[in-house]
Amino acid sequence: MANELNYISGFDRAVVCPCGVKPGDIQTKRLKSGMECFPVSGCGGGSYARVIFNKNVIKEMASLLFSGRFYAGRAHELLFFAKNAANIYASLKNLPYLKDAGSVTIYSYWFYDEAAAGALLKGCLEKHGKRVRLVSRAHGFDIHAERAKYGYLPMRSFLFKNCDRVFPCSFDGGAVLKKEFPAYADKVRVSRLGTEDHGVKYGSRKKFRIVSCSYIVPVKRLNLIAEALGKADFPVIWTHIGSGPLEQEVRSAAAALPECVRCEFKGAMENAEIMDYYKKSDISVFVNVSSSEGIPVSIMEACSFGIPVVATGVGGTREIVREGENGFLLDKDFTADEFIDKLKAVRDLSDTEYERMCKKSRLIWQDGFSAEKNYGEFYGVLAK
After folding, report:
1. Whole-angstrom Cα distance, residue 252 to residue 300?
2. Using one digit for the tens of pLDDT, what is the confidence trace for 332-381?
3. Has residue 142 got a pLDDT over 80?
4. What is the pLDDT of residues 294-306, one digit of tens each?
5. Which residue, of 129, 251, 256, 280, has the greatest Cβ tally within 10 A?
């Protein structure tokens, strides 16, 4: 979201409302002229009593019961979702700027409880004669119910009914939403995210270095990279950027790798530091082996420099990684041998073929994943 803030335009006033702000949190992003920040705190607090008899909650609960999808975990998830939405709405309705606004566009970055809060605010403002539009992005976790806790995303019909437009960040996500909610297919319009242009630093194979960049959590499956590199029979450097709860486990696995594999764990880095690292380092290929994704921003950033990619073809990843053009794709359930074979495929390209792959990576980013291009188009639509 931080990159996107630079491109907001077409409105008399823009108010950014970060949710879940805790006491002591400080604003780190400087907003441009004409924009203000209104932090929303206490999203998870309060009692379920305020929402348990809400008509929309009762309707959703009844739907779960009559469809045979009800059980305690989902009921709790629904109530937690509704409570968060109510808390966010309680803060938003006090925005001082709303009283004098003739028309309001409410934009939720996630198609989840923030969007539900937007729906409540929309209803309130419309009762006071305001012209209101509610739009929401949708990414990955907020599209795929099978990835969610208890295999359930609450109040989807309520969100679709109240949103004027839903913008999934990939064509893969758009297809899922249209298939699952055909009655609202005309509200779905793909609008990709984008990354900034930090210049070009094409890939290099002076030393064969693979780089991964992510939070170290189960879905990112960094343990599979470590396991696969155990079969490497050629010199390779693996650099990982990012930390997380499974870091020690991955470090331990990496420590047992053969001598031909050297591992570097950079820990958590600010985005500016990561971009500087890409700009100054010789990187042969970027790797991502997640079990699920939208379109990974980390891959967009690597492609923007002209670095080839090896990645699992999950979610919208196939929209940015094109087999044999700017990298190679793995099946979701790839084997260690298959991972090594893809690395060798990059290593064994002729210099001409490798240079072509690097340049193609940059071109794919320019055409489809540039922040300037994508956000300019997105806010052009919103401002109409």
Report:
1. 29
2. 999 999 999 999 999 999 999 999 999 999 999 999 999 999 999 999 99
3. yes
4. 899 999 999 999 9
5. 251
